[in-house]
Amino acid sequence: xxxxAILGGEKTRPTPYPQWPVFDERDIEAVxxxxxxxxxxxxxxxxxxxxEFLDRFVEMQGGGxxxxxxxxxxxxxxxxxxxxxxxxxxxIVPALTFQATAAAPMxxxxxxxIVDVDPENYCMDPRKVEEAITPRTRAxxxxxxxxxxxxxxxxxxxxxxxxxxxxxxxxxxHGARWRGRGAGTIGHFGSFSLQSSKILTTGEGGILLCQTExxxxxAESIINCGRPYEYQGKIHYxxxxxxxxxxxxxxxxxxxxxxxxxxxxxxxEAASYLEEALSEVPGVRLLRRDPRHTTRAIxxxxxxxxxxxxxNTHEVVCAALEAEGIPCDTGYPPMHHYDxxxxxxxxxxxxxxxxxxFDFTRLSLPEAERAGERESVWLDExxxxxxxxxxxxxxxxxxxxxxxxxxxxRAAARRMEK
Length: 418
Prior knowledge:
Elements: H1 25-37, H2 48-61, E1 65-69, H3 74-82, E2 90-94, H4 100-107, E3 111-115, H5 126-132, E4 137-140, H6 152-162, E5 165-169, E6 177-178, E7 181-182, E8 189-193, E9 206-210, H7 213-223, E10 229-231, E11 234-236, H8 247-278, E12 284-286, E13 300-305, H9 307-310, H10 314-323, E14 328-329, H11 349-353, H12 366-375, E15 376-380, H13 387-403, H14 405-417
Parallel strand pairs: 2-3, 2-4, 4-5, 5-8
Antiparallel strand pairs: 1-9, 6-7, 8-9, 10-11, 12-13, 13-15, 14-15
């Protein structure tokens, strides 16, 4: 096999994968129509584009009472505030996720409690959740991560026994299903990001699915500057801010939902093909898909490499794959070693009031550390929109990297010595 591209050889894949986001004349027409209407922003809430987008999203996801917001971090903060969770309360979050999952409780005045992940799927380990519960625990935020879903049967059982709120972080899980139920409709809340890289995007934005109409109306009040809402004939007030998303973004969402089913089908077929091929690559371990996870969403697709077989850490392997033309990443580092999660730099009240709760120097999260610092590899969603050829190129590049592993390790060592 030819020399690695990172060492001067030819790329396995010289042409780029399909771009994201996808757009066509429908997007231009939708935005133009909103511009011509003169109703661009999110007030009064909800506007006609927002209502249509949310109605279609609920139909796709299979339920829930939706609220549209500026991003998928605020959605989790608003969910906590809607559930009256705040100062000094504890919220359990997984060690492998984007920093927003742990930052949202802090914004609400709560303390994120970080627990380890299940090595089989890199999602929150329900056994660790149970161990972390104290009298101050009020909520759990399971994250459906990298084409996997957290064991929602176990999480909901724990929540019911301990009277806890569950907020599903579904930033990676648009269209995913557990036992046929849509992600985000199983817990009390479901938080979805619409940021530009997500498989359903409006550029920026987020959707919060609420379990009841009462929760929805309260969340709507919070994101609408605290304007009062009516429920069961009574007027209620909240303290809120402007977290609304505008009609221009919602119009893009309406069009994106038209494309979504075919894109999802394409990604899932490619993922199944990839798994057959990866099972024959030495040093690659597939993450276990729970049979109760009936429909997958492929935003990023994760697998593990054996550093000993590859003779390199996942950082070196990913750099080599990128040089071969394969878009990939090492994924999230464990939260307690995450440069983007430094609570003491935030100057938020809760880390100042409870400094001992944010001292992570003695925190041990061995599974998250092993995954996030040595073995996880995440493939970009674009790989799964290029048919069989796109997958074949991934497999060929992986075989090339593992075959030249010792050579790559020597080159990496020489670079470190300089």
